[in-house]
Amino acid sequence: MDYLIRFSQSHETFRLPEIQALAVIEGVDLKVASYSLESPFCIVNLASEGDARRLIRRSILVQTIHELWGSGPTLEDVHAAVRERTPQFWERYMTCSFKFTLDSYQGSRSSEEKVRLIDSFSYLGFAGPIVMKRPDEEFILFEDWLWGSAVQGIKEPKHYYFGRYIATGARDMPKKLDLKKRRYISTTSMDSELALVTANLALAAPGKLMYDPFVGTGSFPIACAQFGALTFGSDIDGRSIRGDSGKKTLRGNFEQYGLLSGLGGMFTADLTNSPIRRQSLGTSSDGVQGRIFDGIVCDPPYGVREGLRVLGVRDPEKSPWVTSKGKEMYKLPDFIPPRKPYSFVAMLDDILQFSAQTLVDGGRLSFWMPTANDEDQEIPVPSHPYLETISVCTQVFNKWSRRLITYRRIPDAEVDQEAMKMWEADKEKLVGKTADELNPFRKAYFNKFEVEN
Amino acid sequence: MKVLTLNFLTCAVKACKSSSDSFPLHPKEAELAKDDVEINPQLLVNVLPRIDWAALRTTSTELGFPALPEQPPTAEELEADEKMLQELHSLLMETQIMEGKLVCGHCGHEYAIREGIANFLLPSHLV
């Protein structure tokens, strides 16, 4: 049966990857029949109404899903389809309460026109009471208008869809986790809508273990815990986890939302010197043993609003005293270890390598990375032989964008070992010392993305 | 920090990674707290294959919990064993280490835990 998904017309490139991920989580067989980034309407093929409900029940970007009775470029096409494909359904809705509504995307109709459109369906012969508030069934005629139709004097939408309402997505969930009402946030906390979408793409679900190596104030673990996962996180700056040691802490955020059962463990650590137990790649036969996480989600520091640093001394020969002082002092409780700027590209590689080592087979990595919109300054999507790229979603700002990239850990047996050798050799080539040398994005950002001649 | 987390953590010093003495880390002067968490059998069954059982036995003994069996239960055994589920739940999910230290059995480095947050940052001579 065909179903109509009514998306919200925002974060367009995230929408299809989100429902595809949800189909994996819910074990639903999903076939996409028609979809376009320019339209909020998407036709999918599903086995049952139950599948339709499950598919979208935790979707952030789907508004509603409907049993599709007919569609076409003219109203006559819709009626023809409804008459041809659905008479066997009509019987069921003869006596229940119902209502008809019109949903015009980028268009509007006068009330006379609305009545005319709705009355054109009178041949369905529904005889039950018409109830505007919570009827048993709702039938909706959707119109997809061309942008600016009113100004151009266009009189008809480019497409019609007609269907029976089934269910609503989880569009209210971002409000529950809204940053404006969260006790404890920082300048780089991810907004709740995109954090939840990230959690969906990484397949966060009850019983799963998720990890964020750049946890900050905990936006991603909170989103994952909202979907029932047990979450872990670390940050090189322990203060972000600890907060004010009172109510404004990462733990306090979990408390605020009643999600404490989803808080596994948070600790202070550096990804390049991670304490997480890891197995050498290619040594596990059962697809799990020695690997820990079902999902890794993160928004690593871009080196613009927050420094991109790892443990170590930038120039040990110029400042030998830093290391020797550290040797004497490191056992003191308030010792802060020195940190050095680090290569942005190397860090992306580190995240991929770490994920390959710690994700179970089929586990997912979803992380954010920035890039310039200018083609010549674009930073390529990083790759790893143990990780298959599932989707690349883009949120565009004025001169730069950030991408949410999702990978799937493939079983060891499917990995091209030659490619892995080349990947490791390429990683060795990355060198540099200053923040600008190390981070092409930072450099482009502070040059206002102007192309050098 | 949950005891479960401790089972995922080893010494952060790179030279220690190859030594089996660096895992598990040994709690020292540990102050424990207990969270009330609703038991989730599905989670425990999912967690089971990711646990290093020998390390968990060591940790359990060091924290003063009753000894765990020598071999881990299979997923089916665990699902059927109410008592084992409850014990593992209490140890892994409810018990928190709030203050104290984690000590590497290989290099002796001590990682401090404060307010339930362990600190694994290293001074530059150990990086």
UniProtKB/TrEMBL annotation, chain A:
GO BP term, example: tRNA processing
PROSITE patterns: N6_MTASE, SAM_MT_TRM11
Annotated keywords: Cytoplasm, Methyltransferase, RNA-binding, S-adenosyl-L-methionine, Transferase, tRNA processing, tRNA-binding
Pfam families linked: Tmrp11_N
One of the record's GO cellular component terms: cytoplasm
Subcellular location: Cytoplasm
Keyword RNA-binding: yes
Molecular-function GO terms, alphabetical: tRNA (guanine(10)-N2)-methyltransferase activity; tRNA binding
EC number(s) from the headed UniProt entry: 2.1.1.214
Domain of life of the organism encoding this protein: Eukaryota
UniProt keyword Transferase present: yes
Enzyme category, top tier: transferase
InterPro entries, sorted: DNA_methylase_N6_adenine_CS (IPR002052), SAM-dependent_MTases_sf (IPR029063), TRMT11 (IPR016691), TRMT11_N (IPR059073)
PANTHER family, per database record: RNA METHYLASE-RELATED (PTHR13370), TRNA (GUANINE(10)-N2)-METHYLTRANSFERASE HOMOLOG (PTHR13370:SF3)
Protein family membership: Belongs to the class I-like SAM-binding methyltransferase superfamily. TRM11 methyltransferase family.
Listed name of the protein: tRNA (guanine(10)-N(2))-methyltransferase
TrEMBL record, chain B:
Gene Ontology molecular-function annotations: protein heterodimerization activity
Keywords: Cytoplasm, Nucleus
Protein name (database record): Multifunctional methyltransferase subunit trm112
InterPro entries to which the protein is assigned, alphabetical: Trm112, Trm112-like
Compartments, record wording: Cytoplasm; Nucleus
Taxonomy, superkingdom: Eukaryota
Keyword 4Fe-4S: no
Coiled coil location: none
Organism field: Cercophora newfieldiana
UniProt record similarity statement: Belongs to the TRM112 family.
Any one GO biological process: tRNA methylation
The keyword Zinc is annotated on this UniProt entry: no
GO cellular-component term (any): cytoplasm
